[in-house]
Amino acid sequence: MSAHRCGLADAADLGRTPIDVTAVLDHLVAQADTAAPTSIGFPGAVDLDHREVMARLGHRLWNNIGDPTDTGGTAHTRILEQAVIAWLADTLAMPADDRWGYVTTGGTEGNLSALHAARRRLPTARVYYSAAAHYSIPKIVEMLGARGVVVEAGVDGEMDYDHLAVRVRRHRRWPAIVVATAGTTMTEAVDDTTRIRAALDAFEVPGRHVHVDAALSGIPLALDGRLRLDDDSGIGSIAVSGHKFLGVPTPCGVVLIRDSLRRQAAPVAYTATLDSTVTGSRCGLAAALLWHAIATHGREGHRWRVSEARRLATYTVDQLTAAGWPAWRHPHAFTVVLPTPPATVRAKWLLATDADVSHLICMPGVTQGQIDAFVADLTALRGGLAPGDPHLPRSIPRPRRAPSPAAGIGIP
Q1: If 179 and its partner were Cys, which of 82, 121, 129, 346 is the partner (CB 3.0–4.6 Å)?
Q2: Torsion angle of alpha carbons 23, 25, 30, 35, nearest 10°?
Q3: How far is residue 309's CA from residue 333's CA, in Å, rounded to a whole number?
Q4: pLDDT at residue 271, as a whole number
Q5: Residue 237, helix vs strand vs coil
Q6: What is the mean pLDDT of residues 292-314?
Q7: What is the rounded CA–CA span in Å between residue 52 and residue 393?
């Protein structure tokens, strides 16, 4: 019995005999292929071809257990992992003598690794993060048993620095770990680490660590030279995703931490490795995929991808606005913010929605044809609505000020 006839859940039930494995896999691929043309709401690039790596390495286990600098074992890709770390650290202008990192399972593990290192050094610190921070941050704060301090964010998603100052003043007796976001979930806002540092300086907090959750925007901003981790930046760590801008077909990411800000790892005798990472065993295939994406396109190729994605985002704002659906974006962003369309449109188009606000993301690989089709559906819907119809777009909050293209984060 095929997966199409009995439903995927029944076909995949491992209690059945026999199981049509081919039919189940075909069903999954067909579902994904059908959804792809209208999936414009979530940040995964779809323009890079990773099939060569999957074909040549996907038949066996590649286990990058331990620290990326370990040499034990045979079936690992630590050399490629080291190259990825070096490329990203160089792109971020991170000092060569004060860097460490590894390939993670994604942005959440990167945030956990960095905040764990920061809290081991500053065990009584308050962890400040904005209301627009990724949902992993309060989860990690709870996991670490730390005290979290939520800071308000503006309607554009950027941290409210006046409120940060109020919060820091109240807790100034304790060290501060501050999570800045480079690419908030709904609006792709970027927090200004210069203003964060000014708030910490004003109240002379006894110890600090600034971490940047840059899952979406970190690599594009680094390629611009707008995000830097040099000595002047005051940034202690950063986490980026690999399955977003680099479009790797498995969740992954990279965390970078200043080597001087972390404790040395303990050796594990039976694996002949250092236990320096959160998970221990790590996906060597992910490191190879990241390396492949970087090696085959290089900095200039990826800069071109950034510029094309931003060009399409600008086009999208213009087309939506002309169609009567007011939209906006931060100048650096792939993300376009718009009033939430009616359910009939959202049933076809996969958007990210939070109450009255939705977004689509012009990731590399999203085409102008997709945008034109989306706008056409909204135009057709609007044309059939009478004035005052509740399905007409409502006004949405706009940025409180014109965002700086440079975003202010770690800029020299």
Answers
A1: 129
A2: 140
A3: 9
A4: 87
A5: strand
A6: 97
A7: 45
The 3-class secondary structure across 373-410, one letter per residue, is HHHHHHHHHHHCCCCCCCCCCCCCCCCCCCCCCCCCCC
**Cα–Cα distance measured from residue 373 to residue 343, given in angstroms and rounded to the nearest whole number:** 17
For residue 239, what are the β-bridge partners?
213, 255
pTM score: 0.93
Which tokens go with 194? 């210069």
**pLDDT score of 71:** 86
DSSP 8-state class, residue 229: -
Cα–Cα distance for residue pair 150/163, rounded to 1 Å? 10
| CB 311 within 8 Å of CB 334 | no
pLDDT band at 385 (very low <50, low <70, confident <90, very high): low
Structure tokens that stand for 195 in this block: 């203003």
Residue with tokens 């002379």: 204
Backbone angles phi, psi at 104, to 5 degrees: -105, 180
pLDDT tens by residue, 110-144: 999 999 999 999 999 999 999 999 999 999 999 99
Residue that has been written with the tokens 């990472």 in this structure? 277
The amino acid that residue 126 corresponds to is R
Burial class (CB in 10 A: 0-12, 13-18, 19+), 93: middle
Q: How many helices (H) and strands (E) does the chain have?
A: 13, 12
As given in the structure block, the two tokens for residue 127 are 């962890």
Give the Cα separation of 303 and 289 in Å (integer). 19
Residue whose C-alpha is closest to residue 330's, from 181, 229, 165: 181
- In this structure, are strands 147-151 and 126-130 parallel, antiparallel, or unpaired? parallel
Kindly tell me if the per-residue pLDDT of 386 is higher than 60: no
